[in-house]
Design a protein that fits this description.
43% of the residues lie in helices and 19% in strands. With 286 residues, it is of the alpha/beta class. The longest helix is centred in the N-terminal third of the chain and has 25 residues. The chain is elongated, with a radius of gyration of 20 Å.
Length: 286
């Protein structure tokens, strides 16, 4: 993985606090410094009356950032924690800063959202444009046997997701479940199988394809408890069902079925909006 630091966007919300704690533990596991970034901006339709007013807004942003620093140092006292206070819209700031990060972490709910479970705008848009993987943090059960689930479909994005998923499973001592949700028309096309093939033959070909995709990562991480799961259902449905008992859901930015021109595929977007667990969106590094 490129980059030399973990970055977390912090806005002072409860969701942001969860993101800072998650990112601090991740930085500890990866032996990387943690950068806490807060973007401050004048968000009103009328311009500020002068530099003094802007200075007050900036100072309020620094107070928010200071709170994030305290949370990070309480969570992982031994890591190096740095601060970054940047003027600008949060999404644009984090996308720009992601050039130098191994991973960007944000909370699912920002301070602008008033109900738990309503995903924030940065969590929706950032994964589509960031230059590194993005983790959107939700509340977890804390159960040690909850797996890391990776969506697999043979695309370049899914390959990047497998790399990230196996690395996370190894770091956290978690089991990994590589899941391929398919239904017959997609499986026939993916496996270059004749459209007249029997369902059992299609399933066998899909299972072989799944094992072939996962095999190199099993060899690289032999100590990870990894299983493959073939589910005859649309990928979105299969992954959402698997997310019910997952510690982390890892998906590529856009799979084989994604429409050209879209930054994120329908399955990735569905995970961001509907998965009950934390979600990692991994696209091939740009």
């Amino acid at each position: 993985m490129d980059g030399s630091q973990i970055m977390v966007g912090f806005d002072g919300s409860a969701g942001g606090e969860r993101a800072v704690r998650w990112a601090a533990r991740e930085a500890q596991l990866r032996h990387m410094p943690l950068v806490i970034c807060h973007a401050w901006d004048w968000s009103y339709p009328v311009p500020p009356s002068g530099p003094v007013v802007l200075g007050v807004v900036r100072k309020m942003g620094q107070h928010v950032l200071d709170k994030g620093l305290v949370i990070a140092r309480e969570t992982a006292p031994q890591i190096t924690v740095r601060e970054r206070l940047v003027a600008g819209a949060p999404q644009a700031v984090l996308v720009n800063q992601s050039h130098h990060a191994a991973l960007v972490v944000v909370g699912a709910e920002g301070k602008a959202e008033h109900a738990e479970g309503i995903i924030g705008s940065s969590a929706i848009r950032l994964p589509a444009y960031a230059h590194c993987p993005v983790v959107v943090v939700r509340q977890t059960t804390g159960r040690r046997d909850d797996p890391i689930v990776v969506g697999v479909d043979g695309s370049a994005s899914a390959e990047a997701a497998l790399c990230f998923g196996f690395e996370e499973a190894a770091l956290r001592g978690r089991p990994l479940r590589a899941l391929y949700g398919y239904w017959e028309p997609e499986a026939i096309a993916a496996c270059d199988t004749d459209a007249r093939a029997e369902p059992e033959e299609v399933r066998r070909m899909a299972a072989c394809r799944l094992e072939r995709i996962v095999a190199p990562w099993r060899e690289k991480y032999p100590y990870v408890d990894a299983e493959t799961s073939l589910v005859m259902a649309p990928p979105r449905q299969a992954l959402l069902e698997a997310a019910q008992g997952a510690e982390l859901m890892v998906v590529g930015g856009r799979g084989l079925g994604g429409m050209q021109g879209l930054r994120l595929g329908a399955v990735s977007s569905a995970m961001l909006h509907q998965a009950p667990c934390s979600v990692a969106i991994v696209r091939p590094r740009t």
